[in-house]
Design goal:
The protein has about 160 residues and is an all-alpha fold. The chain contains seven helices and no strands.
Length: about 160
C-alpha cells in the first residue's frame, strides 16, 4: 500500500535531505586530493558492478549510448558528492564531541552469523579505519536526523 511505501521510503528521504542540508553548511572546499582518491573508488565500484552484471565498460557504454567524457563527468560528480558527505559528517561528528566506542563497533556486526569472527576478519585485513569511519558517519547521521527540523507537506 501507499502507507507502507511511505513508511519505507520516508526515512531514506529524510536522511538524504538532512545530509544535503548539512553539506550546504559545509565551510570551504573539499580537498582535491580526497576527491581524486574517492574518484578511484567510484570508478572501481562501477567496474566491479559491470563485471557482476557480466559486461564490461565499453560494452555498457555502447548499449547505453554514453560517451567517455560524460562518463568521466558522472564519476567526478559522484566522487565530489561522496567527499562532501564524508567531510560534512566528519565535521559534525567532531563538532558534537562524539566518540566511537567498542559497543558502536560491535553494533556494526550484530546481524552477522558470527560477529566476532567477522570483526576479526576486518582486523586481519587492516580495515578497522573503515569500521571507525562507518561508525562515525552512522552516529553523525543519527544525530542529524534526530535533530532535524522536519516540515511535512501534504499534497
Amino acid at each position: 500500500t501507499i502507507n507502507e511505501q511511505k513508511s519505507r521510503e520516508l526515512p531514506k528521504l529524510m536522511v538524504g535531505r538532512a545530509i544535503h542540508a548539512l553539506i550546504e553548511r559545509l565551510d570551504g572546499e573539499v580537498p582535491g586530493y580526497y576527491v581524486d582518491f574517492i574518484r578511484q573508488d567510484v570508478g572501481r565500484e562501477l567496474m566491479q558492478g559491470l563485471q557482476q552484471q557480466g559486461t564490461n565498460l565499453q560494452q555498457w557504454m555502447l548499449e547505453n549510448s554514453i560517451n567517455g567524457d560524460d562518463m568521466k563527468e558522472d564519476v567526478a560528480r559522484e566522487a565530489a558528492r561522496r567527499t562532501a558527505i564524508d567531510c560534512a559528517l566528519e565535521a559534525l561528528f567532531v563538532e558534537k564531541g562524539m566518540e566511537v566506542t567498542d559497543e558502536d563497533i560491535a553494533k556494526m556486526f550484530v546481524n552477522e552469523e558470527d560477529p566476532e569472527a567477522t570483526l576479526q576478519q576486518w582486523k586481519d585485513a587492516n580495515r578497522m579505519a573503515d569500521i571507525h569511519k562507518m561508525c562515525r558517519h552512522t552516529k553523525a547521521t543519527v544525530w542529524l536526523v534526530d535533530n532535524a527540523d522536519v516540515t511535512v507537506v501534504e499534497d
